[in-house]
Each structure stands twice: as structure tokens, then as C-alpha cells.
Amino acid sequence: MRKRLRFVSIAVFGFCFLVAVLTGCQMVKSDSGKIKDLDYTVCDESKLPEELNKIIEDKRKEPFKLTYRTKDYLYIVVGYGAQDRTDLQVVMTDLYLTPNAIYVNTDLTSKERTTLDGQKVTYPYIAVKCELYDVQVNFQ
């Protein structure tokens, strides 16, 4: 009888604990819907902060994604690493704001002609400047 009472007590306690834990959790959907497309400016080296140029120079040999904040702007940079083609460019296909994040999508595309140039290595990247928001940036 005592063992049975102990078993029931443990089972009830376990059930209550499980209910408390599961009801305390909630799923947060990271993309609750697009609020708006963000306006941005594509920046060349001369328009970027000096510190950001140094970071890009250090990272450019490998693919990278980064953000850089100043007191006024958010810079979003996506690089595709070393490429043996000279006809490549990076294009921004999506940059939009949701309640929880900024979403970024880029593509590496070729210009009109497709040539291989094993003698010249390029490091295609895109750097854009946009309004500063206090949300995370998700790269797609």
C-alpha cells in the first residue's frame, strides 16, 4: 500500500511538473510578416567607414556575412569569397523589415559575358547602408 501511494505521489508530481514546464513555453515565430521593404544605398569602398573596410579586407577571401552599426546607420555586407571569374557581381534581391528582424537575400550573378580568367582572382561583395533598426539581421 505504501509503495502504491509513493508511486501515485511521484506520478502526480511528475505530471504537474510536466504541465508547468510545457505551459511556460511558447513558440515565437521569427517572421510575423513583412512590415516594409527597406530603402538602402549600395556603397563602394569610399563610402564605407574605414574600420568596416578593414574588416572586409580581412574577411574577403572566404564567404562572409556581417553587419556593422554606427550611431546613425546599419551597414550590411555579404561577400562570396575568392572567385576566378571577373564577370561576377552581387545583387540585393530582398531587404525587408519584420517585427523581429531584418531579412537579407543576395545573389551572385554574372554580367553579360561569361569568361574564366584563372589569372585574376576577384572578391565580389555587396555593402549596403540603411536606416538603423534595433532588431537582428537574418541572412537567407
Describe it:
The chain has one domain (31-139). The strands form 2 sheets. The chain has a 4-stranded mixed β-sheet, with no helix packed on it. The protein has a 4-stranded antiparallel β-sheet with strand order 2-7-4-3, with helices on one face. The mean pLDDT is 86. Strand 3 and strand 4 (73-80) form a beta hairpin. The protein is 24% helix and 36% strand. It starts with a helix and ends with a strand. It has 2 helices and 8 strands. It is elongated, with a radius of gyration of 25 Å. By secondary structure, it is α+β, with helices and mostly antiparallel strands.
Category from helices, strands and their pairing: alpha+beta
Give, in order, the helices and strands.
HEEHEEEEEE
Strand content: 35-45%
- Indicate the mean pLDDT: 86
What is the number of independent domains? 1
Q: Nearest-angstrom radius of gyration?
A: 25 Å
Q: What are the salient characteristics of this protein?
A:
alpha+beta; four-stranded mixed beta sheet; 140 residues
Task: Give a short overview.
With 140 residues, the protein is an alpha+beta fold. The chain has one domain (31-139). The chain has two helices and eight strands; from the N terminus they run H-E-E-H-E-E-E-E-E-E.
